[in-house]
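Example S7 (C-alpha cells).
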C-alpha cells in the first residue's frame, strides 16, 4: 500500500491504520474528512474533486516528511479521493502513529492544515441551486475554470 495517494476509489481507514502501526507506536491518530450536506446554510448535493495527481502525491509525501522531521518515530499515511463524492463519503483520510498521543494529535492536525495549504486539489461544490468551483482548499482563491491559471495564460 502506498503511504501517500490520490485515488478515485472509496477510502478505507483500517488499511491506513494498519500501515502506520508498529511496535513503538503508543498512539495512532486518524482524521477523516467527509462530505457534509450543509455549508454556510447551503445544501450540497455532491462534490467533485480534481487534482494534479502526480504533484499532489509529492506534496502529501512532503507533508509526511515534515511530520517525520519533527517526530522521527512517526509513521504517516494520507489518502485523498478525487472524482464524484456523495454526502458522507470520505474525501481524505490521515493516519499518524507516534510513541505518545500528543504528537499523534498534533501531527494529524498539522497534516490536514498543510493539505489545504499546499496540495493541488480542487473542489466543485454542487448545490441545490447551482455549482461553484472552489479554488484552494482554504477557500481563499477562486478558480472559475476548475484549476489555477498560470500567469500570462488566458
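Recovered sequence:
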Amino acid at each position: 500500500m502506498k503511504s501517500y495517494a490520490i485515488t478515485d476509489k472509496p477510502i478505507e481507514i483500517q488499511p491506513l491504520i494498519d500501515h502506520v502501526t508498529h511496535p513503538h507506536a503508543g498512539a495512532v491518530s486518524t482524521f477523516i474528512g467527509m462530505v457534509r450536506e450543509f455549508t454556510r446554510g447551503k445544501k450540497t448535493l455532491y462534490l467533485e474533486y480534481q487534482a494534479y495527481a502526480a504533484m499532489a502525491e509529492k506534496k502529501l509525501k512532503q507533508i509526511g516528511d515534515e511530520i517525520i522531521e519533527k517526530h522521527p518515530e512517526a509513521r504517516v499515511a494520507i489518502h485523498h479521493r478525487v472524482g464524484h463524492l456523495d454526502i458522507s463519503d470520505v474525501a481524505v483520510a490521515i493516519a499518524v502513529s507516534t510513541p505518545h498521543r500528543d504528537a499523534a494529535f498534533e501531527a494529524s492536525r498539522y497534516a490536514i492544515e498543510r493539505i489545504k495549504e499546499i496540495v493541488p486539489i480542487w473542489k466543485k461544490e454542487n448545490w441545490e441551486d447551482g455549482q461553484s468551483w472552489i479554488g484552494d482548499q482554504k477557500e481563499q482563491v477562486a478558480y472559475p475554470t476548475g484549476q489555477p491559471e498560470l500567469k500570462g495564460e488566458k
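Notes on this example. The chain has a mean pLDDT of 91.
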